[in-house]
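Long-time lurker. I teach an intro course on protein structure, and each term I like to show students one example going from raw sequence to a predicted 3D structure in token notation. This year I'd like something fresh instead of my usual example. Would anyone be willing to generate the tokens for the chain below so I can use it in lecture? Attribution to the forum is fine with me.
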Amino acid sequence: MATSPCSSSGVSSSSSSGLGADAGLEIRTRSVEQTLVPLVSQITTLINHKDKPKRSDKTLQAIQRVGQAVNLAVGRFVTVGEAIANENHELKEEMSVACIEARRAGETIAQLTDVASLDHPESDSHITIFTDKTGVVKAARLLLSSVTKVLVLADRIVIKQIITSRNKVLATMEQLEKVSSFQEFVQIFSQFGNEMVEFAHLTGDRQNDLKDEKKKARMAASRAVLEKCTMMLLTASKTCLRHPDCESARINKDGVFHRMRLALEQVIEIVTDSRPNGENEMAPISIYSGIKEFKNKVEGLRENLYFLSKENLSTMLEVILEHTEDFTDSAYTSHEHREHILELSKQAKMELEQLVSVWIQAQNQKTKDLMEDLEVAILKTCQCMNELKREVHSAATSLAADLLKYHTDHMVLKALKITGGEGNLEAVAEYTCKLSEQKEQLVEMCRLLRHVSGTEPLEITCIHAEDTFQVTGPQIISAAETLALHPTSKIAKENLEVFCEAWESQLSDMSMLLREINDVFEGRRGEKRVYLSLPRPGKHNANLKALKPVKLDTEEQAKIAKLGLELHLLTSDVDSETEKWEDQENEIVQHGQGMSSMAYSMYLFTRGEGLLKTTQDLFHQAEIFAAEGTKLASALHAFSDQVHDDDKTLLLLEAEKLVSMCKQLQLTAKAAVQGKSATFTKVDACILKTRNMMTVLCQLLPLCCKLLRKNKAGNGCLKPAPPWREDRIQTGTNVHTPERRTETFGIKALENHVTNMTFLERK
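-- Reply from a regular --
Happy to contribute to a lecture. Here you go:
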């Protein structure tokens, strides 16, 4: 089903000056938001200038320069917007209207700020910013609204690309389902792999660009499904081709195709912000979120005794206590936990009754004694809810810890592989029953963990884990039955291995998820952005012989543990430095945070934890880390163009050092190696080079922050941005290939022209 990209775009933006863009528009991506920041800052500065009786020539010239800079930047911005319109006819009409509005608003601002040549800028004969402040505000609002519309329309092109890429993947999947020969399958799967790589890059960029953390988590979950299912689709399809009359092989293959289609559809729902048939997404309420909201309402009574009714509070508590039944009704909750939860539920009802009684009295008569009684009732109610939260957390996490420890040996999976290879159908049936029991336990564990996860992204991760166990369990069973029916089949054996690895991988991920949930509960920083990747070029080549990635043994992990610890300490240092920046959306900060997040996932690898499971995963992460470092170096060079401080030389030296390190890491990560010893040497080199780059990053961040602070203090270490060069547009419009056009005419192209505006210093 092709979805229209139009439904996803919109913008709402406001600033301290009261400037607001179209209320019907909503900014959903960081790239659009960050592109607007310099424009909003400059216009806000212009409008908030202090009206003084005497204005110096310097002040008048500064105001005029800003007005002209805005008008020129908008003119160039509009030129790019018009070029985008010409390349995308379905957006041409809307884009043209927005461009005309932006150009008109820019010209108005230039006229109103044309004050430097006037002897009396406030005279009635010439309307200026001093005589018509309202006119400037109106023009500024129109400008922000129209520029935002242009950006959002450009963003639709990105959405359209993702939809087109998804449609290509779906079309090729349909061909794969219908093939009847290995030769045809090899050809089509090769095409499918390339299309999945393209889809991976587009959706990965979109995931990192999304502002909404919940949507980010959903996108990550969908992309993780697609990553795992690509290998499953390969082996399941090969098994079906080898054994065309085997019903269990067909069921196994159909399950993979169905799951991939659902994941592809979810990606499009997230990207377009729509649901099929206009349905609203009904997110299940967790006990944690219910308790948090309930406590907020209760504590709000201190400020206002009349803002809600007692029926509202009673209903909220009833919903929370209904959810606790998931624990008390579960066969896997211990007797001790069940009793404590029931006792606390009963106590919560009593505390609320007491609170309501005092609350009603306080509404009728606000005496000091009654207000003190109300405070005591609020504290006791909140304390009881905290104890309930602690009890359900303990129940869920202790169950999860016990189950993960119990299933860590994967005995049922090993037995299925052995009995399936022996062709022992009776034994396979026995172990499939045990796997079904294990699946039910793990699904229940995920449901209970969701209630205590603490954050929406972790809730979504729990839901994803539950779905994975629900789906993968029956797929392992059908793969085992196929092997039992064809015990000498190498491809059936390989297929079962792939599904068992997916199960083991999800169990490993659950250990990390449990750790993160405990971190959030205990107030530690439990969430680090982790970069997920889909199949890479060369991972599934045309001959269908995928290289088996290497895992480090215990001794090798011990050797790199010291390096990993150093890397961990450096990520903490970088995080501390980035937190000192007032502007968290600064490009240097963003790249620094991205590098820190990736370095953290590499540190987890040294401990045998996290989402980087194999050396191939680590090498790919190192490549992305180096690419992010190159982007940071580019941002530093752009920043240095505006610096004429004594530290500029040091900044450029460090940036050049970073570029050199990025190239070295790229070469190391891409170098082909064979054998366990060579692989370990490569792992060691990648982590060492990553550590060295993080050390440089720790020196760069405070230096850049210092330069920015000097500028704010008025020491003048920043000079005006260089003028925008006209040849940029010519370069863009002379490009003929669709790939380069996409690169030139999009959010990035528009960012360049807005960002090059000159800032007016506040004095």
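Some talking points for your students: The radius of gyration is 30 Å. The domain at 164-272 is CATH 1.20.120.230 (Four Helix Bundle (Hemerythrin (Met), subunit A)).
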